[in-house]
């Protein structure tokens, strides 16, 4: 029998407006005395700056002002999972891996270590360094195909908020008055697609905005852990995020000053010369950026001249007042003061020096974080952990077995412990550890001339050319497959990857000189195109291909050097197999006691900034390798090392043990060995739903989780692995949850033979509601470590406000009268205990459409897009089809509605209409208002129509003709 608990919380009208929603507990604290003193210092310095000096501070690269003792300052040190782009530094697991630890205390430690390493360069101040760090990423991982999945924490807003707050608190030092660094969260708002990211608009209906998107970004700001936001490239509801109104959103989440910045080059997208064409001139655009609540322009690299000229033009034309500039500069100075920039000793963090970078303590922390990030997906009949004492021979195979990859936002690895290194070290010098990357080694022979493609033998490589008549080491290339036919070529002569030195520059030549695929353009990508005569063409498929989609390698007639050309010019090659990679891996695995296959992704290739995933499976060559090794050795363990959910349907069915980790930094191999051999019991949990197929997902551009059943909260299908999934080497028993003051209490017992950590997860479900509610919603979690037989009572916080949702009928948070199911367990799909809370909340009244109602506050829709009502602010609904409709459910028309009044715009010529229909989109017609062209999408007019038969309590549908924009309406 399920336990039912009555929570007697009478709903009072006086409390209704106070319901703050899921993030209520993270409200901003009162300003401290130090903050008051700071305000005076800021005003004093602001008053000493000339207008030109103030304008100069608005660009990312703020110049020194010697007369006032101000040093140069730069916004934007990358610090997503370690100090980036400034030389060797500790590299922690990618953010998705940090999230998979479900351990905010650990993540705060990591953030603190990264903050120390950023500070470590303060005495040298190299170019590109600054104390304003661009991390963490708080974008929600609502779709696993997003190219930047590796940068975020989770698909769940609560988990993102907790982890981002922890990381930002570590970065900032935990004292908002004395910042170690000034982190900002990015990218605000609703940016989960890379293809045409600066031109696509994300539709956010109010519930999705308030319940899903905003809480993830809000948490770290409201806790005063983060010091601002970076806006995203995309549009939201038709308005570029670069000019979205932060003053009435982000800046209301805290009483502290925030330093808000644009993303790189985003201001230049706004004018007529840019991709968004939202304003005529850059002056108009930059003025709108400042008025929207941003303070710093990240654009034109180190050149501030365009920004300075545009701001001056905006001032001259009255688009800006000097007070607008002052507001932004005030925010900038506030952060710089708190960073200790104007204190002689640099403040409490001023003595940190370079010795902290890659320190022994940070190495240990990197190993711990990498181990906790590992998720045990499957463990059939105790295949893991491995018993090192019983193993005579271990095969470690796969394309990622003996390498570590970094991503665009990684730091430079100070050292590398690969999976092979870690396993061999754990087994000791006397162990028999064999390895193979499982990739083919080939030679390419020109079918016409007989000349082989030749690489350079030295460390610097050489330009590839057709020269040798016999294949040797310089003619051998290892072929790594990354899926969908994309491969990279590594020269056997020096172990370097083939790519361009100057993508887009002169020459278009290829050299074997890269340690790994890299760069913004990622020029190291090819496809071996099979021809009907048995030869292959070497197609170039690098990102940002400025020469088109059909570009191939050809030998230059003068010297045989390989350059780019058309398909008709391409050299035809005979592919000679020097070594069959799968056969070599199978031979190694067949005689081993255990085979560990390490497969996965290359972060610069398989999804990245500017590129989304189209295929969610393993690369074809890697899947074939796993199948072959599993057939050769039933004791096969597969380690998947990538940055996103993967459709491991065959592997889940056939492989005894599966582990997932992200690209986890320098200590990957040691951490993996720790888990494989049981020195650490796995405790990582998935932060995303792992679907069985991409067919389970709607379009990547569809942002309405509620309507389209996205994420674990709404998805009704069968998943491969549920949100929160992750196995252990021990087992845990849950007691019956019960309500206590401040939350839910449950006893958890370790019933196994090993010490282990369990992430106790609390979910709720509202059983009855006026609107569609999540199937499950994560409300709290706690990671606890238990010895064998140990029991601990875990208290998970749960408040009345946590049960609120956004009521679109009155545009406020509401807790409804309902039974709320409370569930605790090991994952969203493995719930061990339940109870029911009867909450005396509010009954949402029928809609009162006699009042002016915003069209965006609909309950359902078809054939519409959300659009910008006006450029500064406001959302309207735009009809995209001939019979678009909006539902306003349960409207109280008992007084008799006699008249429709609607505020509409219609840019196109011709006549349109707004129809009022009852009960269904094709239900009884109650009235029709005719709309003629208003000449502009932003020129609204009021139209009216008489209504008949609009009575009683029923659903009202507004049916709109294509091209119409509806802002507000009433039925009076």
TrEMBL record:
Source taxonomy: Bacteria, Bacillati, Actinomycetota, Actinomycetes, Kitasatosporales
Domain CBM6: 851-972
Protein name: Exo-alpha-(1->6)-L-arabinopyranosidase
A GO term, aspect molecular function: xylan 1,4-beta-xylosidase activity
Organism in which the protein naturally occurs: Streptomyces mesophilus
The keyword Signal is annotated on this UniProt entry: yes
Gene3D superfamilies documented for this protein: 2.60.120.380, Galactose-binding domain-like (2.60.120.260), Glycoside hydrolase family 3 C-terminal domain (3.40.50.1700), Glycoside hydrolase, family 3, N-terminal domain (3.20.20.300), Immunoglobulins (2.60.40.10)
Domain of life from the UniProt record: Bacteria
Annotated keywords: Hydrolase, Signal
Signal peptide, first to last residue: 1-25
Function according to Swiss-Prot or TrEMBL: Catalyzes the hydrolysis of a non-reducing terminal alpha-L-arabinopyranosidic linkage in ginsenoside Rb2 (alpha-L-arabinopyranosyl-(1->6)-alpha-D-glucopyranosyl) to release alpha-D-glucopyranosyl (Rd). It is not able to hydrolyze alpha-L-arabinofuranosyl-(1->6)-alpha-D-glucopyranosyl (Rc).
Annotated family: Belongs to the glycosyl hydrolase 3 family.
InterPro entries according to UniProt: BXL, CBM6, Cellulose-bd_IV, Fn3-like, Galactose-bd-like_sf, GH, Glyco_hydro_3_C, Glyco_hydro_3_C_sf
GO BP terms, alphabetized: arabinan catabolic process; xylan catabolic process
